[in-house]
Design a protein that fits this description.
This protein has seven helices and 24 strands. The chain starts with a strand and ends with a helix. Helix 1 runs parallel beside helix 6. The strands form six sheets. Strands 1, 2, 3, 4, 5, 6, 17 and 18 form an eight-stranded mixed beta sheet that branches. It has three domains: about 170 residues, FAD/NAD(P)-binding domain, CATH 3.50.50; about 120 residues, FAD/NAD(P)-binding domain, CATH 3.50.50; about 55 residues, no CATH class. By secondary structure, the chain is of the alpha/beta class.
Length: about 375
């Protein structure tokens, strides 16, 4: 009889990285990765960037096949019993485990309770479909001015669409801090984006397909293509009744442990610090770093290397490629290390109580060097 192995819920970059980390840490039993998408595992950052703009194919985002002894099972997890060490799949099938990795990720947040008629960007299918729709539209309306909303708006502008972004903020991607947010906003407006403040109360227009939004004052915004880009929700419903601590995600410790024999990584995770509970960090680098710790701690326990957040972000929009190491929003006075921020090219640093943030804007620099600069305190 085959002994229980490691079950990874989520055929994502985090799920694969956690499985491979457990293998490298010495786990030699079976590892099964459960995924409910019809595609091989893929990486997400390019979905709202090169793939959406048509400069990369859907196949280019597929991840390499993992090491031998790591199997894939197309299925959907619907329950976790940590007492009996079982994952329940749709259809009632159960898998026993010696250790389980929760890498079930997140889904796009929608404005309607049932999401009816809304166009979002979260999955590979979403990106392929949206790319086709951009190609057949003349106008675009993006609801939300964060990372994804800004990148979608950039793809719309590049395709020649008359594009409007509705946001609660006066600038795009305000989470980057005033200097970088202003830079992106100026570039967007120069490219032709119309930025409108979000009314206090709105309703979406359209049933089978959202065609615009209407405010309580009677004003209406319509477009051929309307995209909702207002963040994401963690996929934790399948964990109801598991006994795990669930607070807008799965709460884990510094070793990415949620419970004995249960670890988590990626967009679904919230890390408990000594004083505070950190927000989810739905970014690729954080997911991979958490996954390495999660897989290792399944095998090594507290001998594993603890997860230490090292914030790293990047975005591409309106001719700007911005790579950031360090906490955001970037606060304090902007220090120019190279180039000129106003012209949209160079290397820049901010120091604040939160730490040191360094950003490369249309400036080539090795990731390791960028991170080293952000760790300097003097």
């Amino acid at each position: 009889m085959t002994p229980p192995g490691v079950v990874v819920v989520g055929a994502s970059a985090a799920g694969i990285a956690a499985a491979e980390s457990a293998r490298r840490a010495g786990f030699d039993g079976p590892i099964t990765i459960i995924g409910d998408e019809p595609h091989p595992p893929y990486t997400r950052p390019a979905l709202s960037k090169a793939l959406l703009c048509g400069t990369e194919s859907a196949e280019s985002v597929h991840l390499p096949t993992p090491e031998d002894g790591i199997d894939f099972l197309p299925a959907r997890a619907v329950g976790l019993d940590i007492a009996r060490k079982r994952v329940t799949l749709s259809g009632g099938v159960t898998l026993e485990y010696s250790g389980v990795v929760i890498a079930s990720g997140a889904r796009a947040r929608q404005l309607r309770p049932d999401g009816a008629g809304e166009t979002v960007l979260r999955s590979l299918d979403d990106a392929v479909r949206l790319r086709e729709e951009i190609g057949g539209a003349n106008s675009g309306l993006v609801i939300g001015g964060g990372f994804v909303g800004t990148e979608v708006a950039s793809a719309c502008i590049a395709a020649g669409l008359k594009t409007t972004v509705v946001s609660r903020h006066d600038t795009l991607v305000p989470h980057l801090g005033t200097d970088l947010s202003n830079l992106i906003t100026r570039a967007a407006i120069k490219s032709g984006v119309v930025l409108k403040p979000a009314p206090q109360q709105v309703r979406l227009i359209g049933t089978d397909r959202v065609a615009g939004l209407a405010a309580v004052d009677g004003s209406v915004l319509e477009a051929d293509l309307v995209v909702t880009a207002v963040g994401c929700r963690p996929n934790i419903e399948w964990l109801d009744g598991s006994g795990l601590q669930l607070i807008d995600g799965v709460v884990v410790d510094q070793y990415c442990r949620a419970s004995a024999g249960v670890v988590a990584a990626g967009d679904v995770v919230r890390v408990r610090g000594s004083r505070t509970l950190a927000a989810r960090t739905p970014f690729w680098t954080a997911a991979l770093e958490q996954a390495r710790t999660a897989g290792q701690s399944l095998v090594c326990g507290t001998s594993a290397t603890p997860y230490v957040p090292a914030p790293f972000f990047w975005t591409e929009a309106f001719g700007l490629a911005i790579t950031i190491s360090g906490p955001i929003p970037a606060a304090g006075e902007c220090e120019t290390l190279a180039g000129d921020l106003r012209s949209g090219s160079g290397l820049f640093r901010w120091r604040s109580e939160q730490g040191v943030t360094v950003a490369a804007v249309n400036h080539r620099i090795a990731v390791r060097k960028l991170r080293t600069l952000s760790r300097e305190s003097d």
